[in-house]
Amino acid sequence: MAAVTGSRRARRIHAALAYLALSALVVFFLFPLLWILGLSLKTRAQTFADAPVWLWWPTFEHYADVLFRKDFLKAFLNTLIVSGSAVVLSLCVGVPAAYAFARFPFRSSSFLFFSLLVMRMLPPVAVLVPMYVILSDIGLTTTHLSVVLAYTTFSLPLVVWVMRGFFDDLPVEVEECAWIDGATRRQAFQRVVLPLARPGMVASAILCLQLAWNDFLFAAVLTNNDTQTLPVLMAGFTGGDSGVDWGPMTASGVLVILPVIVFSFMAQKHLVAGLSSGAVKG
Amino acid sequence: MSEISGAAPRPFGDLSAAPAPRGLRHAPLDRFFLPFAVGPTFLVMLAIFGLPLLFSLWLSLTGWSPQQGLFGGAYVGLANFEDLLSDRVFMGSLGVTCGFTAAAVSAQLLLGLGIALLLNLDLPGMRIFRTALVLPMMVTPIVGALCWKLLLDPHHGVVNHWLGTRIVWLGVPETALIAVWLVNVWHSTPYVALILLAGLRSLPHEPHEAAGIDGASRWQVFRHVTFPLLQPFLLVALLLRTIFEFRAFDNVYAMTGGGPANATMLLSMFTYLTSFVRFDFGLGAAAAWLMLLMSMVMCLLFIALLRRRGPR
């Protein structure tokens, strides 16, 4: 009996130590974000007070300010258009390919499959240099289309890799029934497989949306003031010195990351598979 | 020991494909299903990836300015590459990038492993901790860097307030590099932790139970059972993080812009500045190609790993 209580006590101490370590980690990982949230709810005087203010009545003046600013709303709309189009394009092009890779391996299919992975992993700046030169020669830079095409370099591979995992998990018998009933491959794919793969498509759409929403490099080079996305707008804030008004800057920062955090939690189950290019299933 | 490795989990996505169905009659139109399904992906890849990279090779041998046509540059041979290799900023940048990648990846792996082991404990409330700890990796990198820039602000930053100092963190070469490293660790460690946590969850229970019955201590179980079983996942995390840290850009751009005194001039930043600020596209393309070759090696390693460890 004594031995049992002893081990129970040891277990309690272990648990307490684990909670302590986890709490310290949470402070490190969450504090910067909570601090920014706090700054966005402070008046200018509170932000620049000599000692940091820890308790205050939140003010929403900066949010009201930002939400009525033309450049913020425009950038928000641009981000939505550009990342939405990239997701739709990648899904339309990539899902049938992923299905073919999963079900009908053909000659050189694994070469093609792995070159998609390479496309996802090579440094974006290396692709951006020639892409910029070609697009500006055609006169496409500063258009939404150029950014959508650039985003496809990472969202298409992501869709193909994640969707292939989903199709692999789908039992072949489902389509075999359709084939035996006389359906062609295309009919079986459209009427039987696609409806079943909808959760996978939603997950890969969210993962692509997250990457496109967060991208800065491509948008910084390929857009101008009219077509700039939210991260580019945010980078404009950071360029200045501490003389910049922190209120609107932090408020827009919070508004930029809020949607992407919501998306990410929606696809939480697939986050690991998506970000490791299917190497690890979460 | 051999039994344990024999029971090793298969962490990787199933890369083998179902056998193609045979013996079923298909409509003539169906013969074109495969080209129709894969063709568009192939075309898009060629158009936005293959051709630009080939063109980039041509650019690195010539050069380009906005006034001239695509192939208007004069052929200069390997002059751009020679310039690059004798460029002290580039060579410095190469060193900074390698050191930075090594430091960032090792810190992420160590911290990530610690977090994964803690989150894998069977204690109440772990879901909440998990949610709180993965948050940074979801944050837009530019905004994350901005958060830290405000924390580290020399006049009104909370870090200087706590330390009672007036250090210009991002204005001194050493502290600037450390700050950029810290932000990268902050942003990407959760990602390593998630991969390793997925790994820990998929490990078989039997070897741990056997070790427990044999009277192994916690450390012995970790050292001789958990760690070897977790190795494939550690390798995946190591390679993926190396590939992604090697191309790091957003944090540096937002926090230091490559300065002070080129202390944080990562290769991506160098290529960006050369091409889009100095408009030297020949040199930029040469730098881009060298970066490509280096990350290609890492990618091929990763692919070799995927294929070797895949079930087959």
Automatic annotation (TrEMBL), chain A:
Subcellular localization, as worded in the UniProt entry:
Cell membrane
Q: What is this protein called?
A: Maltose/maltodextrin transport system permease protein MalG
- Annotated Pfam families: BPD_transp_1
Q: Highest taxon of the source?
A: Bacteria
Q: Does the keyword Cell membrane apply?
A: yes
The reply to whether Nucleotide-binding figures as a keyword in the UniProt entry is no
Choose one Gene Ontology CC annotation of this protein and give it.
Answer: plasma membrane
The record's InterPro entries line, in alphabetical order, gives: BP-dep_ABC_trans_perm, MetI-like, MetI-like_sf
Organism from which the protein derives: Roseicella aquatilis
Classify the protein's membrane topology as the record does: Multi-pass membrane protein
Give all residue intervals belonging to the ABC transmembrane type-1 domain: 76-267
Q: Name one GO biological process term.
A: transmembrane transport
| Job of this protein | Part of the ABC transporter complex MalEFGK involved in maltose/maltodextrin import. Probably responsible for the translocation of the substrate across the membrane.
Which keywords, in A-to-Z order, does the entry hold?
Cell membrane, Membrane, Sugar transport, Transmembrane, Transmembrane helix, Transport
Q: Which regions span the lipid bilayer?
A: 16-37, 75-99, 111-133, 145-163, 192-213, 246-267
As for family, the record states: Belongs to the binding-protein-dependent transport system permease family. MalFG subfamily.
Indicate the principal place this protein occupies in or around the cell.
Answer: membrane
TrEMBL record, chain B:
Q: Which residues form the ABC transmembrane type-1 domain?
A: 94-302
The protein's matches in InterPro entries, at most eight in alphabetical order, are given as: MetI-like, MetI-like_sf
**Might you name a Gene Ontology BP term for this protein?**
transmembrane transport
Q: One of this protein's Pfam families, by short name?
A: BPD_transp_1
Write down the Gene3D superfamilies for this protein, in alphabetical order. MetI-like
Cell membrane found in the keyword field: yes
How does the record classify its membrane topology? Answer: Multi-pass membrane protein
Coiled-coil ranges from the UniProt annotation: none
Which GO cellular component term is one of those annotated?
Answer: plasma membrane
Q: Where in the cell is it found?
A: Cell membrane
Membrane-traversing stretches? 32-55, 94-119, 131-151, 252-274, 286-306
Q: Has keyword Ribonucleoprotein?
A: no
Q: Which PROSITE patterns match?
A: ABC_TM1
Entry keyword set: Cell membrane, Membrane, Transmembrane, Transmembrane helix, Transport
- Give the similarity note: Belongs to the binding-protein-dependent transport system permease family.
Write the protein's name: Sugar ABC transporter permease
- In its UniProt entry, the species of origin is given as Roseicella aquatilis
